[in-house]
Amino acid sequence: MSKISEEALECFKKSISEIMNESGFHNATISLEERDIESSILITIGFTGRLHGYLMLQTDFESATNFVNILADYIGMEIDSSSFGDFHKSTFCEITNQISGRSTIHLSSIGLDSNITPPSIIVGSSIYSSVSDYDVSQTYYINDAFGTFKIFICINIT
After folding, report:
1. What is the pTM of this model?
2. What CATH number corresponds to the domain at position 50?
3. Residue 136 near residue 154, CB atoms below 8 Å
4. Most buried residue, 73, 126, 129, 155, by most Cβ within 10 Å?
5. pLDDT digit string (tens) for 3-52?
6. Is the dihedral angle over the CA atoms 56, 60, 65, 71 positive or is it negative?
């Protein structure tokens, strides 16, 4: 892996850590250690420009619901926590958007200007995604009181 690719992946990891911390998840850990996740939610955001590819966040309903409920408590907001509704979906799209947007800031600092696409969300059971033809990819597992998220990044640098 090239030095610029390693630096780019570090930008993503730094962004994940910063956004989780700013969202009140101060004890979140980021690991490369693979964990078994029953993916029920998948959010994707594309990257265009000098760096292009995808960031995908996957998780299960329980972790997603816990995350939104803890986040709502952290900001003092009351929500209907009985089901995974539109507010939960919007929250997940927004947190993925924030991680991706922050990544573009850090990437720009190393000379990799890029833009992001709007998030897309898929909700179902046993969701599986596959991508090919990318030079660099990395999977991060984020753990905290809510459960586990899987963030997959695949990029090409031109």
Report:
1. 0.92
2. 3.40.1550.10
3. yes
4. 155
5. 889 999 999 999 999 999 999 999 999 999 988 888 889 999 999 999 99
6. negative
